[in-house]
Amino acid sequence: MPTLVGAEADERDALLQFLSAQRESLRRAVHGLTEEQAASRPSASALSLSGLIKHAALVERGWTDLMTGRAQEESRNWETEFSMVEGETLAHWLREYEAVALYTEKAVADLPDLEATVALPEAPWFPPGSRRSARWILLHLVEEAARHAGHADIVRESIDGATSYQLIAATAQE
């Protein structure tokens, strides 16, 4: 079954496999759609499938940068993070999401362990002076991707009636 996560070799492998499974759920949600369909907002929410892919790629890149001590992007534009702007395409963000996945996997492989902590940036949603471990960050990335994969299932079904089970079957045949 393509959505059943395989047996893990160790904790890192387990975390990366579960994250990969959630990324695949997001990718499946756009299977067979046009740019217009993927950018549409067919529900009461302002979410689109292409916007969810874009957001997931940006979020994962940001958390992986933080986890590995790389420089953080100065500011993010929350108004455009969930939608396509002029010149952006779903194909671009799918490629970017794949590149981010490889970046995260390499970063995790290069970590000495999952215990080291990093300071979280100043933000209204983090208590001042907060620190988190690489393990926590990876668990959060699984949570983030899973949340948005659920959103994507609902948005996709609103577009053309395709359910996640139908999309699993369709992509398993390719």
UniProtKB/TrEMBL annotation:
Record Gene3D superfamilies: dinb family like domain
Protein name: DinB family protein
Classification via InterPro entries: DinB/YfiT-like (IPR034660), MST-like (IPR007061)
Source taxon at top rank: Bacteria
